[in-house]
Design a protein that fits this description.
Layout (H helix, E strand, L loop, with lengths): L1 H10 L21 H26 L9 H4 E4 L2 E4 L8 H33 L19 H11 L7 H5 L15 H6 L8 H41 L5 E5 L8 E4 L6
Antiparallel strand pairs: 1-2, 3-4
Helix pairs in contact: 4-8
Length: 262
């Protein structure tokens, strides 16, 4: 059917608007509809512009405020528009919070692994601030127990080196305390010079200091992760009551309304 209509249109006569009659040529060109349309649109456009200008002049206020006054500032005599904040939805903000939590948790786990590796190397044998170990001695008879009490009370002198069967120089050690038989049968391994021992002690103190710094950093990462998680939870549209304020070492605590999950 469409091809039949196209065939009919190809055969029909084109419509032509009549031209100016000969006895009216002295009046000029006969205006067609397309010419009238252009002239009418131009006329209405000018009329609308004049109406808008009259309204603006009538409603002019010398103390008029518009928001561009807030969003611009004068810099070197030129009005500069301030940078607009990026518009993000609640879902996008939650996703960014989730990414932040994952990053902080990743760094915290990395610090925890480094701490475990340092602890396995150092064993915390002579770390500063470490709780002193207790050494309990068991006696075979009550007389020996009484003798030990007399020694503790200052009545007798208790020879700790003889009781531990080691050299007096090694009594203060809490680790690697060989007996006299071991010292006689084997040679001393490792550093023996005072300068070497001092150097090793300095390196050990540095390792303990590094371990303390990593432990403190891991605690900070844990607190930061808790605070980010709290801010993420606050973005949910749930009624909540603030229980305690946020501090440098703890996040803010909120009590949320119980809501049934469907």
């Amino acid at each position: 059917m469409s091809s039949f209509r196209k065939a009919l249109k190809s055969q029909q006569r084109n419509h032509r608007e009549r031209s100016q009659p000969g006895f009216r040529k002295h009046l000029g060109f006969l205006e067609k509809k397309k010419d009238y349309k252009l002239r009418a649109d131009n006329y209405h456009k000018k009329q609308n512009t004049l109406t808008a200008l009259r309204k603006k002049a009538a409603e002019k206020n010398p103390d008029e405020f518009y928001y561009k006054m807030v969003n611009t500032q004068l810099q070197d005599g030129v009005h500069m528009k301030t940078a607009e904040e990026e518009e993000t939805t609640e879902e996008q903000k939650k996703l960014m919070r989730t990414q932040d939590i994952k990053y902080v948790e990743m760094k915290r786990v990395a610090e925890a692994k480094k701490i475990e590796r340092l602890k396995s190397e150092l064993h915390l044998l002579d770390a500063e601030g470490k709780q002193k170990n207790k050494h309990t001695f068991f006696m075979e008879t009550k007389e020996k127990v009484k003798g030990t009490w007399n020694t503790l009370l200052g009545l007798d002198k208790f020879d700790l080196a003889a009781h531990l069967n080691t050299a007096p120089e090694l009594v203060d050690r809490v680790y690697n305390r060989p007996t006299l038989q071991t010292l006689e049968s084997r040679s001393i391994l490792g550093a023996t010079r005072p300068s070497e021992i001092k150097k090793l002690a300095k390196q050990r103190r540095h390792q303990y200091k590094l371990l303390a710094q990593r432990v403190e950093r891991e605690k900070k990462m844990f607190i930061i992760g808790q605070k980010i998680q709290t801010r993420k939870d606050l973005m949910d549209k749930t009624k909540k009551v603030k229980v305690s304020k946020e501090t440098a070492h703890t996040p803010a605590i909120y009590k949320f309304e119980a809501k049934r999950k469907r």
